[in-house]
C-alpha cells in the first residue's frame, strides 16, 4: 500500500491541479448521468403514454369469430413475461348527435380486468369507476364535444341495428386524443348482451407484458399456441420505435464523447504529473522501489482521481436532476440507480485506463537518468 | 577480512561506433567488509560512473560486480532494485529527499519499500538514527523546511535505515559548507566505527579523501592508484 500512500501524497502536494482534474471528471460524469437519465425518463414517459395504458399483444381469431375466454388464463400460465391477460368483447357503436353520427370503439370486460390494462380507476376525471349493467365510461374529449357528463344517458346504435341505452358512470382521460374521443368501456355482461355472446366467448385476449419490448418474441408464440392471430404493438408503432432508437443513439454518442473528453483530461494530467514527479520516482527507484510498485503510483493516482471525480459527479448529477425538477416542464427525470452505478464504474475504469501510459513510462524509468541529471 | 565487494574488469562504453566513449576501461579492485575507502579523480575521470555501476544504478558493458559473493551483473531490474534496497545505501551530492514527505517519512522510506512497518525495533532504530544524526525533534518537519546540512543528514539517515553493508557516497559534501562537511565526515566515521558499515566515497577533493583509510584513484577510466591513506598524504 506504499504506492497508494505515495499517490495520495503526490495528489495532495498539488491541490489545485488535483481539484481541477477531479472537477473535470465530476462534470463529465454528471453530464453523463443527467443526459442518460433525461433520455431514459423521456423515453419511459413516451413509452408509457404510447403503450402504458393499452395492450401490448392482442389475440383474436383471424376470421372475426369468437374465441374462448379461458385463453387468458392459459396464456398467463404458459408465459411468465405476461403481467396480465384479459378476455374482452369489442364492438363498434354509433352515437348520434344532432345530424352527426359518431363511431365509438366499445370494449367490454370486467371492471377489474380493464383496470389492470388501462388503469382506468386512476384516470377517471368525473363520475366514478364502475361498470354495472348498462353502465359505460366515455372519454374526456367525447364528453366535452357532445356535452355529455357522468349520470347522463348514452343512446347508441349496435352492430346488429338495435338501439342500446347506457348510463354514463364516469369520464376518463387516457392522455391520448383519439382514445379520449372514440373509446368507450362497458361491463363484460353488457358487452355479451350487445354481441349475443355466451359467458365463455370473447372477441379477443388483450395482453400486457412486464417489458413491452418482449412483445415481438411473445406474440408469435401465443398466436401459434392458441391458433389465433396475434397483433404486436411494436409492429404497429414502427415510427415511434424508430424515434426512440434515434434518441438512444444520440444519447449514447453524447455520453461517449463526454467520456472521451474525460479520458483525455485525466491522461494529460497524469502525463504532466508523471513528468513533474520523475525526480521523485527516480529517487524511490534508486533506494530500491521496484518497477511495478513505481508504476502503481500512477494507477492509484488515477483511481483516486477517478473515484473522487465520480463521487463528485454523482452528487452534481443528482443536483442537476433536482434542479430540473424545479423547472416548469411536463415530466420529471427519474435517476436510475443501476445506470448511475454503471456510470460510476465507467468513470473509474476510464480513469484507470487513462493512467496506463504514464504508469508504463514510470515503471520503465531508470534511476540513473534522474541521478545523472542532478 | 572477507571481500564485500569485488569489481572485476568492468568496462563502460557510452554510444556506438565513431561516437563511442569508453568511460571505464577494465577497472578491478576489491573492498573488504568494514573498510572506509574513497575513490578520487578529476571531473570526467569515470569515478561517478564506477560508483553507479557498483550501486547497480547502471549496468557495465563488460566485466562483473560481485556484492556479498553474488554476481550482481546478471540480475534483472527487480533483483537489482532489491539489492539497492537491502544491501546498499546511497548518499549523493544532492540530498534527493522527497519534498512531499516529512523527515520521518523520508528516513523510513527504504524500510517501507522493503515492506516493513516502522514499529517496535524498526522504530527504535529510526529514532536512534535521528539521535545519531542530531535530528531529534525535526521528524515531523517537511523535508523542504530543513537547512542544506540537515537535509544531507536526513539523506545519510535514509541510507542507513535498512542497515546496509555498503554505503556509496558520491560527492556527499559537494553542496555543503566547511562546517557541515566536517560534520558529515565525522558522522561517516562514527557510523563506520560503531555499526561497521563499509563506506566507499567518491570525491574530487584529495583533502576529503585523506580522511579515509584507503584511496583509489581513477584517471581517464582506469584505476591508476590503490593506496593506503598515509601514502597519498605523503605524496601530496
Structure overview:
The complex is a heterodimer of chains A (374) and B (236). With 374 residues, chain A is α+β, with helices and mostly antiparallel strands. Chain A folds into 2 domains: 2-47 and 240-373, no CATH class; 55-232, no CATH class. Helices cover 58% and strands 19% of the residues of chain A. Chain A has helices at 2-13, 15-52, 70-78, 111-118, 140-145, 177-182, 188-195, 215-226, 238-276, 278-286, 291-326, 337-354, 356-364, 367-373; strands at residues 57-60, 67-68, 82-97, 100-108, 124-127, 135-139, 153-157, 163-172, 183-186, 201-202, 204-209, 229-232. In chain A, the strands form 2 sheets. Chain A has a 6-stranded mixed barrel with strand order 3-4-9-6-8-7. Chain B has 8 helices and 10 strands. In chain B, the strands form 2 sheets. A 6-stranded mixed sheet of chain B has the order 6-7-8-3-9-10. In chain B, 35% of the residues lie in helices and 28% in strands. With 236 residues, chain B is of the alpha/beta class. The chains are: A alpha+beta (374), B alpha/beta (236). At the A-B interface, helix 1, helix 10 and helix 14 of A face helix 2 and helix 3 of B.
Short description:
The complex is a heterodimer of chains A (374) and B (236). Chain A is an alpha+beta fold and 374 residues long.
Amino acid at each position: 500500500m506504499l504506492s497508494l500512500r505515495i499517490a495520495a501524497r503526490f495528489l495532495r502536494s498539488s491541490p489545485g491541479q488535483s481539484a481541477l482534474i477531479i472537477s473535470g471528471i465530476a462534470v463529465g460524469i454528471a453530464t453523463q448521468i443527467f443526459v442518460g437519465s433525461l433520455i431514459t425518463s423521456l423515453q419511459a414517459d413516451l413509452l408509457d403514454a404510447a403503450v402504458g395504458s393499452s395492450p401490448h399483444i392482442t389475440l383474436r381469431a383471424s376470421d372475426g369469430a369468437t374465441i374462448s375466454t379461458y385463453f387468458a388464463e392459459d396464456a398467463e400460465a404458459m408465459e411468465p413475461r405476461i403481467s396480465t391477460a384479459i378476455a374482452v368483447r369489442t364492438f363498434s357503436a354509433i352515437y348520434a348527435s344532432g345530424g352527426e353520427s359518431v363511431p365509438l370503439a366499445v370494449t367490454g370486460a370486467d371492471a377489474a380486468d380493464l383496470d389492470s390494462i388501462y388503469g382506468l380507476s386512476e384516470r377517471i376525471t368525473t363520475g366514478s369507476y364502475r361498470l354495472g349493467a348498462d353502465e359505460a365510461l366515455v372519454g374526456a374529449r367525447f364528453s366535452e364535444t357532445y356535452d355529455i357528463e357522468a349520470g347522463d344517458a348514452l343512446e347508441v346504435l349496435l352492430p346488429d341495428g338495435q338501439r342500446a341505452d347506457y348510463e354514463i358512470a364516469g369520464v376518463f382521460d387516457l392522455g391520448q386524443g383519439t382514445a379520449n374521443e372514440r373509446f368507450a368501456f362497458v361491463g363484460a355482461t353488457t358487452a355479451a348482451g350487445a354481441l349475443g355472446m355466451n359467458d365463455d366467448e370473447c372477441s379477443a385476449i388483450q395482453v400486457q407484458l412486464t417489458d413491452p419490448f418482449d412483445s415481438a418474441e411473445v406474440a408469435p408464440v401465443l398466436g401459434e399456441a392458441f391458433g389465433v392471430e396475434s397483433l404486436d404493438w411494436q409492429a404497429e408503432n414502427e415510427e415511434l420505435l424508430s424515434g426512440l432508437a434515434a434518441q438512444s443513439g444520440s444519447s449514447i454518442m453524447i455520453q461517449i464523447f463526454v467520456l472521451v473528453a474525460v479520458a483525455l483530461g485525466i491522461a494529460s494530467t497524469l502525463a504532466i504529473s508523471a513528468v513533474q514527479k520523475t525526480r521523485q520516482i527516480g529517487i524511490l527507484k534508486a533506494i530500491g522501489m521496484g518497477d511495478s510498485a513505481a508504476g502503481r503510483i500512477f494507477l492509484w493516482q488515477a483511481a483516486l482521481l477517478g473515484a473522487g471525480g465520480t463521487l463528485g459527479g454523482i452528487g452534481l448529477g443528482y443536483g442537476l436532476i433536482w434542479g430540473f425538477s424545479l423547472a416548469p416542464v411536463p415530466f420529471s427525470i427519474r435517476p436510475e440507480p443501476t445506470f448511475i452505478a454503471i456510470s460510476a464504474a465507467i468513470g473509474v475504469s476510464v480513469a484507470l485506463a487513462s493512467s496506463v501510459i504514464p504508469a508504463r513510462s514510470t515503471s520503465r524509468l531508470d534511476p540513473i537518468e534522474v541521478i545523472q541529471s542532478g | 577480512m572477507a571481500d564485500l565487494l569485488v569489481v572485476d574488469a568492468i568496462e563502460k562504453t557510452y554510444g556506438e561506433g565513431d561516437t563511442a566513449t569508453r568511460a571505464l576501461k577494465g577497472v578491478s579492485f576489491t573492498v573488504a567488509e568494514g573498510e572506509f575507502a574513497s575513490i578520487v579523480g578529476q571531473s570526467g575521470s569515470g569515478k561517478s560512473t564506477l560508483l553507479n555501476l557498483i550501486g547497480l544504478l547502471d549496468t557495465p558493458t563488460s566485466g562483473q560486480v560481485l556484492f556479498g559473493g553474488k554476481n550482481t551483473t546478471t540480475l534483472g531490474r527487480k533483483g537489482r532494485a532489491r539489492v539497492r534496497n537491502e544491501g546498499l545505501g546511497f548518499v549523493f551530492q544532492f540530498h534527493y529527499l522527497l519534498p512531499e514527505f516529512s523527515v520521518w517519512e523520508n528516513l523510513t522510506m527504504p524500510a517501507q519499500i522493503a515492506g516493513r512497518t516502522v514499529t517496535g525495533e524498526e522504530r527504535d532504530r529510526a529514532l536512534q538514527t535521528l539521535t545519531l544524526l542530531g535530528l531529534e525533534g525535526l521528524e515531523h518537519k517537511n523535508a523542504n523546511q530543513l537547512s542544506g546540512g540537515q537535509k544531507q543528514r536526513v539523506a545519510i539517515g535514509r541510507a542507513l535505515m535498512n542497515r546496509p553493508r555498503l554505503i556509496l557516497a558520491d560527492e556527499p559534501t559537494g553542496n555543503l559548507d566547511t562546517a557541515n562537511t566536517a560534520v558529515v565526515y565525522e558522522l561517516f566515521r562514527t557510523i563506520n566505527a560503531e555499526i561497521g558499515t563499509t563506506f566507499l566515497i567518491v570525491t574530487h577533493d584529495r583533502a576529503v579523501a585523506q580522511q579515509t583509510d584507503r584511496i583509489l584513484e581513477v584517471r581517464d577510466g582506469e584505476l591508476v592508484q590503490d593506496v593506503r591513506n598515509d601514502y597519498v598524504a605523503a605524496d601530496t
